[in-house]
Amino acid sequence: MTDELTVAVLGTGIMGAAMARNLARAGHTVRAWNRSRDKAEPLTADGVRVADTPAEAVEGADVVLTMLFDGPVTLDVMRQAAKGLRAGAAWVQSTTAGLDGIAGLAAFADEHGLVFYDAPVLGTRQPAEAGQLLVLAAGPEQGRDRVRPVFEAVGARTVWTGEDGAEGSATRLKLVANSWVLAATNAAGEVLALSGALGVDPQKFFDLIAGGPLDMGYLRVKSDLVREGRLSPAQFAVSTAAKDARLIVEAGQRQGVRLDVAEASAARLARAAEQGHGDEDMAAAYFASFDETDA
User: Fold this and answer.
1) Distance between CA atoms of 247 and 266, rounded to whole angstroms?
2) Composition of the chain by helix, strand, coil, percent to 5
3) Strand pairing of 133-138 and 121-122?
4) Among 53, 118, 169, 246, which residue is least crowded by beta carbons within 10 Å?
5) Mean pLDDT computed over every residue of the chain
6) What gap in Å lies between CA 78 and CA 291, rounded to an integer?
7) pTM tops 0.70, yes or no
8) What pLDDT band is residue 293 in, cutting at 50, 70 and 90?
9) CA distance 159 to 268
10) CB burial class (10 A; 0-12, 13-18, 19+) of residue 59?
């Protein structure tokens, strides 16, 4: 089969828009839909056709790629798309949907004869725009030739975790990875907040750990966003990170594991969102260290 595909991208936020652009630049025919059409319109400059409805976007598509907020939203949108879906089409589900969410999405795929790929991604705005995401994927070996060009267009590498997307092995790995990312992000914010409270120049801390085992590029990147006031546009938004944190806590609870740091991360991110930082980079969890009147 040809590597040139017709791909429907449902959800054109930070990640979905970048993925749609890279698919179009790779030579694929791309149709995109977003609940707020104005967020999708700029994609027309890259040759992407913006559809009015999910059903219009997916009609005749070889591959449907979803990058929406969570599992329930994704299921709702796919139900809206149902009349346009072609039996046998591949569904690349890249939303961080959680374990319960993946089960429901896989059931929908089975009901509609779709070949289901659980394929969340690791990365933020910059790697997404550069087509350098890390794709975590699970799905049948037979049929991977159809989705491989999609993964190659949006990512630098694909890590296959299993042959049955319904088992959620890719989502499980994504939740583990995100638990570390969110813990590190919140720790960075607390380091800055504590430094300020104690009258310590945070640069002295960074100099102290420079080049040693405690040093971390990610710590410096996220800290610089706060210190330099570069929280918008978000690389990965507070509201989305708060959702992922909740999914991590729920996954642990399902398996009888108490995740105290993840629970604290979820609370901090939710508090930052309530303070008005939901659309800013997740580094804005820093502000959750203060009362709203002090932030």
Assistant:
1) 9
2) 55, 15, 30
3) antiparallel
4) 53
5) 96
6) 40
7) yes
8) low
9) 31
10) middle
C-alpha dist (Å) from residue 33 to 10, 68, 236, 239? 5, 11, 20, 21
Q: What is the C-alpha separation between 91 and 117, in angstroms, rounded?
A: 6
In the chain, the DSSP E strands lie at 6-10, 29-33, 49-50, 63-66, 90-93, 115-118, 121-122, 133-138, 155-162
Q: Which two tokens stand for residue 28?
A: 């694929």
Q: What is the mean pLDDT of residues 169-178?
A: 98
Question: pLDDT of 146-172, one tens digit each?
Answer: 999 999 999 999 999 999 999 999 999
What pLDDT does residue 3 have? 76
Whether the Cβ atoms of residue 8 and residue 61 lie closer than 8 Å to each other: yes
Distance from chain centroid for Cα 147: 18
